[in-house]
Amino acid sequence: xxAVMLFLxxxxxxxxxxxxxxxxxxxxxxxxxxMYGERKIIxxxxxxxxxxxxxxxxxQAGLAEVPVVFADEGCLKKTLKEITAxxxxxxxxxxxxxQRAVILSGLSNKEVHRIMDDxxxxxxxxxxxxxxIPASExxxxxxxxxxxxxxxx
Length: 153
Description:
This protein is α/β, with parallel strands linked by helices. It is 31% helix and 14% strand. It contains 5 helices and 5 strands. The protein has helices spanning 2-9, 51-60, 80-84, 109-121, 141-151; strands spanning 12-14, 40-44, 68-71, 101-105, 127-131. The chain has a 5-stranded mixed beta sheet with strand order 1-5-4-2-3, with helices on one face. The two termini are 19 Å apart.
């Protein structure tokens, strides 16, 4: 449970009200400090027809060079570490019906703020945002999405 709480305390959730829920989680300062892990963006819950929207936001945030993995239902039993090892654009064009979420790995704190701000300014649907941490990388994607949904319904 302690690992779960540590993990959840580092998660940043974007709600329909913008950053309104940040007060209950540790806020990420705007610095050049890099977060844990290999530079990667894991995108969950986007049908193929909407993947270009999140890619546009990633580009708008100046992160077009960061590899992106589109996790689908076939990734649910994989650990986050296994998913971050997948190649750039893995799962592109595959429809996903999972909970909409983005897991950020190895980005700087400023980059995290930029992508979330750009996402919100584009008026895209509510989704969960997370940062990979050592305590979470050996958990399965299914476990993490289930906990997000349970904790933030």
